[in-house]
TrEMBL record, chains A, B:
UniProt enzyme class: oxidoreductase
Top-rank lineage group of the source organism: Bacteria
Record's function text: Catalyzes the sequential NAD-dependent oxidations of L-histidinol to L-histidinaldehyde and then to L-histidine.
Protein name: Histidinol dehydrogenase
GO cellular component, one term: cytosol
Organism, scientific name: Vagococcus entomophilus
């Protein structure tokens, strides 16, 4: 891990310049992806089959996974895993139900009604990556909020493979209540969801992580359908003082680092002794990890031990980093909530280890990465609804507002706007 | 206007194929825009000055509009316009305050706290187009929701012109409570807001409509900062039966058509007589409109009179169109709210003419266009906040969930995740 011990101002400048250098590479994939999108938009199912054969060696007749296959796969999953998934589901549901939003109607003035409806999206597509990046916990996290929002059709797509879709992924989809599963991946899967083919239905929104082709395709179809955020490498930030347990912190940093060689880990502390102990513990615990190589590279390239003067400065640095996951390992951790301005999900105290949030606590684990918690939210029920406003005016109410509307319309040079009100008060038009 | 009288199924197919042909042209601008973004990201203020001189003949020392200029401009605006803007503001505020969302905290189980904070974005940029497309009403609609959300810094950018920024735009910004105004436009203004220069501050989100360069720049910086939706041509759909007043409907269609040659207008009705009368009325009212040419072209290219069998089918067609504005000109209009699945803003009854919503009613007039009300919402307070989750676990609570976490982590092959929980129960690590 890299040490940063300096004035906060200088640390912040360094971090900002590092952020600038990363995160630009997508343009080169776009030409290729644009072609795939175009082919599937214009040629539909035929093109989808060609790409699936070419990229994934898919040779089946249909992309649809049958109900029987899903049932059989679910039966093959160990009972203890099924129980854990169901427990996770209960907690995710009880958390996310609190995100439901209410319509409102307001009748503050005679003859006027205004309000807003909350409507679920009609159809949503969930992308689930293949291979070792296929996580059943992520299936629950992506699907359940859509379910709670009231989405009628939830479609899952996941790349085909010679060994088939992992049983536990099908089981998780089953538990979460996915309506249809298609064995199709990559940019071609995103195109199919965005434009529809005779087999794969067109959806209103596409969510879920994927490789660079998937991310690029999502960005290109954005506007034609809605998408969730573009996920970058995962991050954890830990704020701790000398009362914290370096063994716990090291284990939590490693749990992030094992995800991906590009995962980022930050410890920000006012105690150089704690930072030293954490560094030693990381090295010690690393030795026996199955994913040692990945974690080692991630820590070497993107691990940081940041020592600042006091906790006030620690929060300044951390808010600038705007981490996906933030652990507060300080006494009375809840009292620090008001100091946090940018973070996806916050873990409070020594026992709220970050994996608690990945699997069981119930808050979402699909979170804004790479500093985007400055403006993005965790995935939630609010991502699967849309709002529709409505306005009712009586003739009398319009009469009262007639002048103001016409003054503004004419000031903007929009005479037909003014006349639309005017005709309603002309004797001839009754 | 074009007539469509057929079975609903066939009308829907025709509408779908027309939608396919429109709306693909942006790629060609991207290369140029990408260069502008890159230059401003790397060379900052210097590059911003070069582009402003080149594209807008801007020669000033600073882009910042001084408080004195804003004050002087505000004083020059007619009292009746100022009063109408203030009345609009009151209604916009009272509507949007109902969109504020509440944090929640949940303690359903001993030793566990979970919750979600609602935090305002820190800084927001509002783009206001130049020339005749500079609408004071849009300044209020973009700025006030951000203000209500609690955004600390609201920055407005608008292209420079030889005659200066229109007084009424500066006055509206002043009324709405904009913090800083910069005279800079085009893709270079979007780049400045996304990356920051020594003069223009970096923001977290960029909202507001603009030309193709602005839209393209917004799409390219998406992910680095947040953006609102990409606005397409404006639309109105009217559902009416033979009890409706054709004069009113014609006037409302014209108020949409005068915006833009690409504006779309739809009447969907079960009465061919009404449709005929509306067509005649449109031609009659068109003659004396100052923006006759624009409205005429818009109606010829994108105006539709759609006649269906009954009102049930009318709603099916309209929900497929998913219009930005929807008027229900039927008896007892409120009773039809449950039939609407896709629409930005709905106007109920003969006297809720669409311009009522543009100027005075208080619901937002920044709405999803081109069928995107399938998945997007009107601009609102929710666009200027982000959510942060938090989780607290006691040791005892972690003990209870320990097994489930470890089973899932190991099933996903993430051993360090399992160990992060395990170390907290090892005797040595106390």
């Amino acid at each position: 891990m890299k040490w940063m011990i300096d004035e906060t101002r200088i640390i912040l400048e360094q971090l900002a310049s590092e952020a600038k250098e990363s995160g630009r590479e997508q343009a080169q994939y776009e030409t290729k992806v644009r072609e795939i999108l175009w082919e599937i938009e214009t040629r539909g199912q035929e093109a989808l089959k060609e790409y699936s054969e070419k990229f994934d060696k898919f040779k089946g007749d249909t992309f649809l996974v049958s109900k029987e296959e899903i049932k059989a796969a679910t039966k093959r999953v160990e009972t203890e895993v099924m129980d854990a998934l169901k427990q996770a589901k209960r907690n995710i549901v009880s958390f996310h139900e609190q995100q439901k939003q209410e319509a409102f109607i307001d009748s503050g003035r005679e003859g006027v009604l205004r309000g807003q409806l909350i409507l679920p999206l009609e159809a949503v597509g969930v992308y689930v990556p293949g291979g070792t990046a296929a996580y059943p916990s992520s299936v629950l996290m992506n699907v359940l909020p859509a379910k709670i929002a009231g989405v009628k059709k939830i479609v899952m797509v996941t790349p085909p493979s010679e060994t088939g879709i992992p049983d536990v992924i099908l089981a998780a989809a089953n538990i979460a209540g996915v309506d249809e599963i298609y064995q199709v991946g990559g940019a071609q899967a995103i195109a199919a969801l965005a434009y529809g083919t005779t087999c794969v239905p067109k959806v209103d929104k596409i969510v879920g992580p994927g490789n660079i082709y998937v991310a690029s395709a999502k960005k290109l179809v954005f506007g034609h359908v809605a998408i969730d955020m573009i996920a970058g490498p995962s991050e954890i930030g830990v704020i701790a003082d000398d009362s914290a347990n370096p063994v716990f912190i090291a284990a939590d940093l490693l749990s992030q680092a094992e995800h991906d060689e590009r995962a980022r880990t930050f410890l920000v502390t006012d105690s150089i002794e704690l930072a030293k102990k954490v560094e030693q513990e990381v090295e010690k615990q690393l030795v026996t990890l199955p994913r040692k190589k990945i974690a080692e590279k991630s820590l070497a390239d993107f691990g940081k031990l940041i020592v600042v003067k006091n906790l006030e400065e620690a929060f300044n640095v951390m808010n600038a980093l705007a981490p996906e996951h933030l652990e507060i390992q300080l006494p009375e951790p809840l009292s620090y909530l008001p100091k946090i301005t940018n973070a996806g999900s916050v873990f409070l105290g020594s026992y709220a280890s970050e994996p608690v949030g990945d699997y069981i606590a119930g808050a979402n684990h699909v979170l804004p990465t790479s500093g985007t918690s400055r403006f993005y939210s965790p995935l939630g029920v609010y991502d699967f609804i849309k709002r529709t406003q409505f306005t009712y005016y009586s003739k009398k109410a319009l009469e009262e507002d007639r002048q103001a509307i016409q003054i503004l319309a004419r000031k903007e040079g929009l005479e037909a706007h003014a006349r639309a009100v005017e005709v309603r008060f002309e004797e001839d038009n009754k």
